[in-house]
Amino acid sequence: MRVLPAAPPIEGLTAVVTGGSRGLGLLLARQLLRRGCDVVLLARDEAELGRAVARLAQWRGGTVRGVVCDVRDRAALQDRLAEIARAHDGLDIVIANAGIIQVGPADALGPDGFQEAMDSVFHGALNTALAALPHLRRSPAGGRLALIGSVGGLLAVPHLLPYSCAKSAVAALAEGLRAEEGAHGVTVTAVHPGLMRTGSHLHALFGGDRRREYAWFSALAGAPVLSMSAERAAERIVCALQRRRPRIVLTPAARLGARAHGLAPVTTTRLVSAVARVLPRDGARGTLDGSTVAAGEQPPARRLRSVLGALNERAADRYNQR
Prior knowledge:
CATH superfamily: NAD(P)-binding Rossmann-like Domain
Shape: globular
Low-confidence stretches: none
Structural class: alpha/beta
Radius of gyration: 19 Å
CATH topology: Rossmann fold
């Protein structure tokens, strides 16, 4: 078995994580802290940021603080990153993780759903990258940028189409920036996770037959075989960032799906179409967040979901999702 060399140390570097107050972002921040980085979390909710900083403060390593910022606001993001760079004498690592996920048929989510996904997921990543790059180019250690995509950006997933479209754009952005920024000493890592047990089902937005959409999504996101431990995922992502890898695809199912689509796109599309036929149809337009949908579940459905998605429910408690 091939043994990878030790990852280059990043102790003492300054790192920014957008969407860092919960879920995967929180765990990425923890991994950076454990490696001795000074970490700044960016998120929209001040109270949530405060809880995240309190959770992370117990970990030895670097320092951690939170800054309120909406990555959709380009000017505000530029100002916040400039302030962080001045306070820390530069930026060395930036992870663009912020975004939303919507679950439901495309016609139920509608044009607004696609626009919201592009604004939050793609434009959030684009704004972060363009605001960070001038600072990363000046990093004595050589700047590192990671853009969190998804296997849904490599293979379109039914009932996740706005998310897939936005993540596909993130994948192209990461690949193109990797090629352009090498001349400036900055490396860009494209990260494409599959299902992870982060507890994010509580913040996902559900349209169409909301209860049934919530049921299948929350169950699959917590399935031990199909989904991955979020802590393990965060560790692998930060290791890839340390090693300046161009791309990482997480979970065996995600790697299999991406490879199958690349080798046999027509066959893969037919298989995905077969899966789409068993997903819920019709339902209401507009969306509700997962916690609201869960609150309206009947006791039998709630008990069944608590069994099927037990790992994901525990993840929600651990990773500041409630």
